[in-house]
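Entry 12.
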Amino acid sequence: MTVHFVGAGPGAPDLLTLRGRDIIASCPVCLYAGSLVPEAILGHCPEGARIVNTAPLSLDQIIDEISAAHAKGQDVVRLHSGDLS
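Predicted 3D structure (tokens):
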């Protein structure tokens, strides 16, 4: 199980990197801050993925989501605005 941190770029969905798109497409769990990440980016999540808007969640609740995925052996992508590098 891996937690991937992916920057959603400057806002336009077509500016997401290819690697970022591929990571999103491979993860059955996607965590994102709804106030910061454009919803169009979520279109890259695989069908049936668990997509969680973390904006209203506490840090403990976000960690619980990651722990639940870990217990199932699922990879997680954590989407952030901008470029994380």
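Annotation: Helices lie at 18-26, 59-71. The chain is about 25% helix and 20% strand.
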